[in-house]
Amino acid sequence: MWKKLAVTAISVVSVGVGTAYAESSLPTVYHVYIDEHHVGMVENQAEVKSELRERLEEAEANHEGMELSYMEEVSFEEQKVLSVKDESSNVMDSLQNELTFAADVVRLYVNGEPVAHLPSEEKAEQVIESVKKEYVEEDELEEIEEGTPELPDVGETKVMDVGLSAPVTMEEDQVMLSQVHTVEEAVSRVEEGRPFPSPHSETTSFIGMMAKSQKPLVDVVLTEKERKEETIPHKVQMKKTDELFKGESEVKQEGEGGRRELLVERTYRNGEEIKEETIEKEVVKEPVKEIVLQGTKKVPSEGTGDFIWPAVGGEITSKQGKRWGRYHKGIDIAGVSDKTIKAADHGKVVEAGYRNSFGNKVVVDHGNGYETIYAHLSSIDVKKGQTVKKGEKLGVMGTTGRSTGVHLHFEIHKKGSLENPLSHVSP
């Protein structure tokens, strides 16, 4: 071990020839040794000891928090001499030039490899904390060190644990003062993958650093948990019903999505996600299924004889009768915002297409002697041979064929004879 202030005194008496001088009257000198090397002799060893103490105290003052001592042993050999040759100046110079300081340190090991020398265990712990803080906030780290954090609430993510991928240990030792590292230097050594150098590697530190892979000596492994909510889609159940015509559907019960909470755990290594898994699932609201009724009732091809207005609103712009020197066989309906044209009664489409002055024309045979005509449509939504029910869309009001504007020309025939539509329908 190094010496805090190690001095050894050895008494040697040198007496000249004869007895003219009594031993007690001879002057005393002290030979000073650094280890086994003689550096000179002095009359006052107290001055040398004082110099040693002062140098040590000054060094400790300049390296606050460090326990220092001398690496070399300083010893004194007492001798009685006839004449004194004081070599105090040489001795003090030797103390200045030949003595080196040693520091009590904590050596930090990562995965069994020595990494750095720190002045204290507290400083060594700071190195570990600093490495972790590269990937976690200080307040999060403090919460973890106080104990296992509480699980996150919905919409919240929490760091639950921060650890290292390899064991970190410490050992007390003494080293030269020049071999003591600061916290910052030690952190760099860990992050840059530089274990404690061999005796010759410090002389080629630049080359050595360039040769390193920059892979850290230890990885920071972080675990976080997130609690989130997701929607559970509702199911749709289709039910047959003979209360609706085939092709019709009706929502009997509105569907509503449910909700479930998930607790997701993610693991990161040096800030990169390496694993994610859902560790908890809890349904907080069950979904409500949607029930849709599908009609099975056959659409009748025979009408009821009771007709409905074939447009969505509107007004009569021209009635049945003589007009412009000719007989107008039906009524004209216009002035609507919704241009849907509807079947006036159940029946079967016997004509659907373009027909001269009628333009786009649909004819429905109601199977009971009645037949209705819908003309000047801009588009047709049914086909010949198709069975339609009362109120079903046949097409869109337009101005095709011989027309003076957007309108519907509507006729009703019974057993081949023309009927007045206004005898059967009204706006």
Question: Could you describe the 3D structure shown?
Answer:
This protein folds into four domains: 9-99, no CATH class; 105-153 and 162-199 and 208-218, no CATH class; 223-297, Resuscitation-promoting factor rpfb (Resuscitation-promoting factor rpfb fold), CATH 2.20.230; 315-423, Glucose Permease (Domain IIA) (Distorted Sandwich). 15% of the residues lie in helices and 43% in strands. It has six helices and 27 strands. It has helices at 45-62, 88-98, 121-132, 138-146, 183-191, 205-211; strands spanning 9-13, 28-34, 37-42, 68-70, 74-80, 101-110, 113-118, 156-164, 168-176, 220-232, 236-245, 249-253, 258-269, 272-285, 290-297, 315-318, 321-323, 326-328, 331-334, 340-342, 347-355, 359-365, 370-380, 387-388, 393-397, 408-414, 417-419. Residues 42-69 form a coiled coil. GO terms for molecular function: metalloendopeptidase activity.
